[in-house]
Amino acid sequence: MADEGAVRALVTGGTGFLGANVVRVLLEEGLTVRVLARPRSDRRALAGLDVEVVGGDILDERSVRRALTGCPVVFHVAALYAFSPRQVQRMYTVNVDGTRMVLEAAQQAGAERVVYTSSVSALGLREEGRGADETTPVRSELIVGHYKRSKYLAEQVALEFSQRLPVVIVNPSFPVGPWDVKPTPTGQVIVDFLNRKMPAYVDTGMNVVDAEDVGRGHFLAAERGRPGERYILGGENLTMREFLQLLAEVSGLPAPKVRLPYLPILGLSYLNYFSLRCTGRGSKRMTPETLRMSRHKMFFDPSKAVGELGFPQTLPREALSKAVRWFWEHGYAVGPGRESG
Predict the structure, then answer these.
(1) Which domain holds residue 212?
(2) What's the pLDDT tens digit per position in 55-72?
(3) Is the pTM of this model over 0.85?
(4) Does residue 147 carry a catalytic annotation?
(5) d(Cα 317, Cα 207) in Å, to the nearest integer?
(6) Which position among 81, 116, 147, 231 bears the catalytic label?
């Protein structure tokens, strides 16, 4: 059992991909961890861990206050990451209103430190090929899609609260690694690759970071971060072609060589979006929103987090190796030596 004298931390979103990695690091550091989780949430990522799970919802003030009792440190990781047109309004409700609800309750409870999980989606972008940092101005025309807008608005809420509550903001980039149960959109790319369902790719770019490093970054932000400051929890910038080539090297599978042209695929994405909206059927990863997002390479510079927090920098090859092994071991794809049939 956890040490009764240890610092108690509340983690929202602890059943999710990033949250589960945050929980594991906190346990390693000797903290007593409480997780606020919806009653019907998938809790596989917490199986076997010595954590207290409290049923509730970040949109329910009473359950948030109950979960906060006795927890001087709060990690607000919970968020809704979706591209389905049927989830748009709920995404704003969860990401923006939910953040306000948690931070208001934390302030009233006298929390000593809050780490808010934002996203690089809330940050500005620089010219092609250059990594943006925490000071890069946000251009409204580059906040493409409802997820990005919801995270940008939620971060503004966190920045406002930081004037009266010790809130440190972390901005993870594109994490890969274990415990991606759902999986996330980036994780789904890996799963599709492993299942040989990715014959072609779109020319884009992302900053790839080890999910376990991101978990560690949350703890470091609580320990060393400056309230009111933002820290990019990122790794290495890769084009999609480079990302897939690394996947090929760690998995032993061939990388797709066909690059899809933008305009024809954009046209198909509108048809797919119409199907999603009317019937709920179609690909949630091929919408006009995701295609427009892909036109801008999401490259970032994590130097501030490395310098101020001591944020680790696991190489993308190792991070992808861990992700591939986890997906193989948990049945998302058939690994080498276990061919079906």
Answers:
(1) 8-179+208-237+298-314
(2) 999 999 999 999 999 999
(3) yes
(4) yes
(5) 13
(6) 147
